[in-house]
Design brief:
With 574 residues, the chain is mostly helical. It folds into two domains: 392 residues, Na+/H+ antiporter like fold, CATH 1.20.1530; 142 residues, NAD(P)-binding Rossmann-like Domain (Rossmann fold). The chain is built from 23 helices and six strands. A six-stranded parallel beta sheet has the order 3-2-1-4-5-6. Helix 19 links the parallel strand 1 and strand 2. Helix 6 runs antiparallel to helix 14.
C-alpha cells in the first residue's frame, strides 16, 4: 500500500504486528476510560472537562503517573487527527460574512486587544527578568500564548448562563473570533521563524491567500451545489466535509503550509455557506473523541513539576490577568460600552486558550521553544482554567465590586453609555424559530406571507431541504440548513435568542429523533423560549406539556374540529 499521501501530511504510519495493534488499542481504551472518569469528576466539581483529560494523561504517563500507556507515539497520531478536526471546527465557527456585520466596536477590540497584549507583554518581559527558558523564541511564544483566551471554556460557561446574547457576551465572542484569526496568521509565520526572511514570510502568506481563494471558489461553485444535492443524507454530508478537510490538509502540505492551516481554511470555506452549522453538528462528536486523546497526550508529556515551574506558572497567570485588565477594560470603556460591560468582558476572557497549547505544540515540533516553557504554560493553563470557571460564574458581581472601586478614581458608569444592541446591527432580531418546512410548516408560512408579511423579519426557518431557500429569503424569511437529528447546529443560528421555537413536524415524519428528544434538547439550548410541538397522539401531547412544552398541537384534532364546524354550518343552511 502506498502511504505517500500520509507522509505528505507529516503523520507517521506504523505497520505494527498483531501484538503492536493490541497495545495501540489497549492504550487508546485505557486513555478513554481514564479521561471519561476524570471528566465526570471535573463536571461534578464544576471544572472544565479539559482538566480531566489532561489529568488522565498525567496519571497514565511515565513522567508523573504509573506508566500505564506504553505507546505514546501511537496515541499522538490519533491526537493529531483530533487537532486537525479541532482546527477544522474553529474554521467553521469563523463566519466571515457574519463577522463583517458585527460592527466597528468589535473590529476595534479584535484588532487592538491582541496586538496591544503582545506588545505590552514583550515590553514587560524585556524589562523584568522572567525565568521562561533559553530558546530564542520562548519570549515570543509566551506573549502569543498569554494573549489568547479559551473559546471552549468561555462559550460553554456563557451558554450555561444564557449570556451569549448580552452586550458583554457579544463583545466577548467578537474578541475570541479575532483572537482565532490572529492565531491563524501567526501559524502562517511559524514555519519561517528560524529564518525570518521577508520573501519567505510573504511567500507563506501568499500561499495562504491562494489556497484560501481557491477553497472559497470551490466551496461556492461546487461544494454548495454538492451539499444541496446530498442534503437528505447526513452520512454523505459528514463524509464530504471530512473529504474536503483532509483534502485541503494534503494540499496545504504539498505547497509548504502546515496541515493545521489546511484544516482551518477548509472550515473557513464551508462556514460562509448555509451548511456550515450542520457540518459542525455532525463533525463535533468525532472531533470530541479525538480531542480527548489530544489533551490526554498533553498530560502524558507533563514533566514532574518543580517548585520553580509552579511558581513561574502562578506568575504567568497573574501576568495574564494584568494584561487582560490593561488592554480589554480601557478599550471597551473608551468605545462607550460602559464600566460594567468593560469589566464583565475582561473577566470573561481571563484564561489561556487551548489554541495556545496547539501553537506551543507546533512550536515544539519546530524546535522553537523549550520543554520547560511548555510545562510552565500547561500548568498555568490548568490554574487559569480553574480560576476562570469561578470568575465567569460570578462575573457580574465581581464587575459591580470593581466598578464601585474604580469610581474613586473618577471613572463612573454614564447612563447614556449603556448600549442595548451592538453597533452595526441593522437586521431585525429573529426570535421565532420554525423547525421544518413540510406540509404544516408550508401552510403556516404561506399564511404569514399573505396576511402578516412583516412578521417574516422575525422568523428563521430551519430545514434540511434547500429547494425553497431562495424563495423564502426573497419573502423576508431567513432559511438555515438544520438536520433535526443533530440539534447542535441550532446553537449557530441563534436558538438562545428565540422567544418561540415551533416544530411543525410530528414523530411520524421526523427522522433520527422524536419530539420528546427535541424538547429535552431545546429546554437546555433555549431555556427562556416557549416551545410548541406537533404530535400525532393526544396522550403524547399531554406528556410533552407536562415535560415543559408550552403547547402541543394535534393536527388530526384541528382537522376534525374544522370538518365538524364546516358540516354543522352547512347542515343548518339546508
Amino acid at each position: 500500500m502506498d502511504y505517500s499521501f500520509f507522509s505528505s501530511l507529516n503523520v507517521p504510519i506504523f505497520l505494527a504486528s498483531a501484538g503492536g495493534e493490541h497495545n495501540i488499542l489497549q492504550d487508546i481504551g485505557i486513555s478513554i476510560v481514564f479521561a471519561t472518569v476524570l471528566a465526570h469528576i471535573a463536571k461534578l466539581i464544576k471544572q472544565p472537562l479539559i482538566l480531566g483529560y489532561i489529568l488522565a494523561g498525567v496519571i497514565l504517563g511515565k513522567q508523573m503517573g504509573y506508566s500505564l500507556v506504553t505507546d505514546e507515539v501511537s496515541i499522538e497520531v490519533i491526537s493529531e487527527i483530533g487537532l486537525i478536526l479541532l482546527l477544522f471546527i474553529i474554521g467553521l465557527e469563523i463566519n466571515l460574512p457574519e463577522l463583517a456585520k458585527m460592527g466597528k466596536a468589535v473590529f476595534i477590540l479584535g484588532i487592538f486587544q491582541f496586538s496591544l497584549s503582545v506588545v505590552f507583554l514583550y515590553g514587560i518581559l524585556s524589562i523584568v527578568p522572567f525565568p521562561i527558558g533559553s530558546e530564542l523564541f520562548d519570549k515570543l511564544y509566551l506573549c502569543i500564548a498569554l494573549s489568547l483566551s479559551s473559546t471552549l471554556i468561555v462559550i460553554k460557561l456563557l451558554q450555561d448562563k444564557a449570556e451569549l446574547s448580552t452586550l458583554s457576551g457579544k463583545l466577548t465572542v467578537g474578541i475570541l473570533i479575532f483572537q482565532d484569526i490572529w492565531a491563524i496568521l501567526f501559524m502562517g509565520v511559524q514555519p519561517n521563524l528560524n529564518d525570518p526572511q521577508v520573501i519567505k514570510i510573504l511567500t507563506s502568506f501568499g500561499s495562504i491567500f491562494v489556497i484560501l481563494i481557491m477553497a472559497f471558489i470551490i466551496s461556492k461553485y461546487i461544494l454548495d451545489r454538492l451539499f444541496r444535492s446530498i442534503s437528505t443524507s447526513p452520512e454523505l454530508v459528514l463524509l464530504t466535509s471530512m473529504m474536503w478537510c483532509f483534502g485541503l490538509c494534503g494540499m496545504a502540505s504539498f505547497i509548504g503550509l502546515s496541515i493545521e492551516m489546511g484544516a482551518l481554511i477548509a472550515g473557513l470555506s464551508i462556514a460562509a455557506f448555509p451548511f456550515g452549522g450542520d457540518v459542525i453538528s455532525k463533525v463535533i462528536g468525532i472531533r470530541d473523541f479525538f480531542i480527548t486523546l489530544f489533551f490526554v497526550t498533553l498530560g502524558l508529556k507533563v514533566p514532574m513539576p518543580t517548585i520553580m515551574v509552579v511558581k513561574v506558572a502562578f506568575l504567568v497567570v497573574i501576568l495574564m490577568l494584568f494584561i487582560r485588565l490593561v488592554t480589554i477594560f480601557p478599550l471597551v470603556y473608551t468605545l462607550g460600552r460602559g464600566v460594567r460591560n468593560a469589566f464583565v468582558t475582561t473577566i470573561n476572557l481571563a484564561q489561556i486558550s487551548e489554541f495556545s497549547l496547539v501553537i506551543l505544540a507546533l512550536g515544539a515540533g519546530f524546535k522553537h521553544i523549550t520543554e520547560e516553557l511548555r510545562a510552565i504554560i500547561l500548568t498555568a493553563t490548568i490554574i487559569a482554567s480553574v480560576l476562570s470557571t469561578y470568575l465567569i460564574v460570578f462575573n457580574h458581581s465581581l464587575a459591580s465590586i470593581m466598578a464601585i472601586f474604580i469610581e474613586k478614581f473618577g471613572i463612573k458608569e454614564k447612563e447614556d453609555e449603556v448600549v442595548i444592541s451592538e453597533e452595526g446591527q441593522t437586521e431585525a432580531v429573529r426570535d421565532i424559530l420554525i423547525l421544518g418546512y413540510f406540509r404544516i410548516g408550508r401552510t403556516f408560512i404561506n399564511l404569514i406571507e399573505h396576511i402578516y408579511p412583516k412578521l417574516a423579519e422575525r422568523i428563521i426557518i430551519a430545514d434540511y431541504n434547500p429547494t425553497h431557500k431562495e424563495q423564502l429569503n426573497k419573502a423576508g424569511f431567513k432559511w438555515v440548513y438544520v438536520d433535526l437529528a443533530h440539534l447542535e447546529s441550532l446553537e449557530h443560528v441563534g436558538v438562545h435568542h428565540a422567544s418561540y421555537v415551533i416544530c411543525t413536524i410530528s414523530d411520524a415524519f421526523l427522522k433520527g429523533t422524536t419530539n420528546t428528544r427535541l424538547l429535552s434538547s431545546l429546554k437546555k439550548m433555549a431555556p427562556h423560549s416557549k416551545i410548541i410541538l406537533t404530535v400525532d397522539d393526544p396522550q403524547d401531547g399531554v406528556q410533552l406539556v407536562k415535560d415543559g412544552a408550552y403547547k402541543a398541537i394535534l393536527p388530526a384534532q384541528i382537522t376534525g374540529e374544522y370538518l365538524f364546524d364546516f358540516l354543522s354550518l352547512n347542515i343548518r343552511k339546508i
